[in-house]
Amino acid sequence: MFVFGNLIVAVARVIDFILEAYKWIIIVSALISWVNPDPYNPIVRFLHAVTDPVLRPVRRLIGYRLGPIDISPVIVILIIIFIQSFVVKSLIQIGYRFGGG
Predict the structure, then answer these.
(1) Fewer CB under 10 Å: which end of the chain, C or N?
(2) Who's near 95: CB < 8 A, 6+ residues apart?
């Protein structure tokens, strides 16, 4: 049964790593948006391609902007922090109960 526990812990840690990396991608994308970047720059295009599919529904749900500030990255980061704190930690605890670790 310990193999199943190790699998759950490993999956949880990979999910946590991916969420942490995505959180930083959102932060970089938000910071770059402040300086009016070149839309043809490959890095800017990558950032938009990766973040827009997640930010777009949030923007539609809350409205695009709150005054002059786009708060959708903040909301997505809070959702990521919730997933890391609740789902990932719960998976790790379940994995430890199965003898993983």
Answers:
(1) N
(2) 5, 6, 7, 8, 9, 10, 12, 101
What's the average model confidence in pLDDT over 52-57?
Answer: 95
The answer to whether residues 51 and 39 touch, using CB atoms and an 8 Å cutoff, is no
User: What is the number of other CB atoms lying within 10 angstroms of the CB of residue 86?
Assistant: 10
- Domains of the chain: which residue ranges? 2-94
Distances (CA, A) of 60 to 32, 52, 90: 21, 12, 30
Model confidence at 100, in pLDDT bands (50, 70, 90)?
Answer: low
